[in-house]
């Protein structure tokens, strides 16, 4: 093995790239802040997102995010901890931007699912979970806000199985609830971590560790809680799922941790255990088979494009996930889909708003590359001429549709340019009725707030005012079928045949009933909920 290769192997093995998923308000931002704190990336955890003080997170790049006080785009955060190089793919919390989160999950090697102990599994968590499940990546569960009154822990564990259909293994177990929350029992180490109020989670806190058999425990917890704990643990050992790392890595079993991000309780043990159990970058599927991250040839794919993130930069950045080999600043790579050589001269890494130029990067890392308008989501880049193409990023089914026109016919050119760019970024999906010109475009979005982003960005970046006419469709299906012909398609009165941006035939539906009617009437075709870009 040469030195270059041994360095690559070492760097791959210490990478951990994951996304944190949750329903808004479950505590994703707070947990991210605490993880960064352990990595020494920030001194006071509150400095990443001091909501009340500044009303927006540092990662809120766009003006609209500041106005609405929500996070529209995903950012990437890198930090070091215990000799691991950690990449957290931060994702927008608001459900209207879930498509961006879905795509970001394509770049993650594992996911951390944050659940509010009082609310259990909520709608957005469920959606995001299914995308992780589809990819078969390991999923770790952090049940948060244990300092507050919540559901019974057994009920929460049952919800994982009933609602998400995933087996679970509690790594620790809570003692008491709400005001009486005393701490957690670590099942592996057979130790109790006692909960103390600490200093409101602004910096690292200390926890006392005691053995479950420790004589002082009954007086600390009270007889009732102590015997309840012993009963619970016995029940878990006998009736619960057993721990199996293979099943964790396949995404069939989720290790569960109870804690409180705000008070910084249970966060560091969670991080340590997570880093040990989760996987470094693993081989990825491509048109040429599985690609080993430790292969020397550099390869990667683009999973996100973001224009005008910062008004002082006013540029377009393509986010590239490195899949194999070593990345070096200034290297020439092959843009597979365009069959062109390009030089990656100003690669950047992100710590929220701060951008730093990277000299080298490794599989698992995300780098931002300047995009003069040549990249599309799902494009692959590789160092040699092997023409490796990673499997496309799914187009997730929009649920809201409207017709969009420009108010001023003289601005048509800018209008089309803006629409095309926003579609390449994946902010919107564009459809066209066959035989009708681009004057009448149909726009589909996963969350209705994306329409506001469209209107705002067309006005602010392209100087175009638009009129939006909302359409009643709520479902979309891509048509698959040998020899499909639009003329032979037998639709219901309320459904509409259109073409997507890659000219694939798709049908828009008002309700699920119409979908099943159309499926019955057209047996030779199949209707798909997800389509792949750059197949
Ligand atoms: P999100 O990114 O998932 O949307 O959630 P975020 O971290 O912003 O947390 C949502 C709210 O829940 C915040 O309160 C936060 O302080 C609180 N929170 C997070 N973790 C815990 C926890 O472990 N225990 C308790 N009790 N609360 C927690 P907020 O009132 O919306 O904001 P703020 O006033 O705290 O800034």
Q: How do the strands line up in the largest sheet?
A: 2-3-1-4-5-11-6
Distance between the termini: 35 Å
The quaternary organization reads as single chain
Helix content: 25-40%
Number of strands: 33
Radius of gyration from the CA trace?
25 Å
Number of domains: 3
CATH topology of the largest domain: Rossmann fold
Percent of residues in beta strands? 25-35%
Q: What profile does the largest beta sheet have?
A: 7 strands, mixed
Name of the CATH class of the largest domain: Alpha Beta
Return the average pLDDT rounded to an integer.
84
Q: At CATH's second level, what is the architecture of the largest domain?
A: 3-Layer(aba) Sandwich
Hetero groups: guanosine-5',3'-tetraphosphate
Q: Given the helix and strand composition, which structural class is it?
A: alpha+beta
Shape: globular
Query: Which spans of ≥5 residues are poorly predicted at pLDDT below 50?
Result: 43-61, 68-74
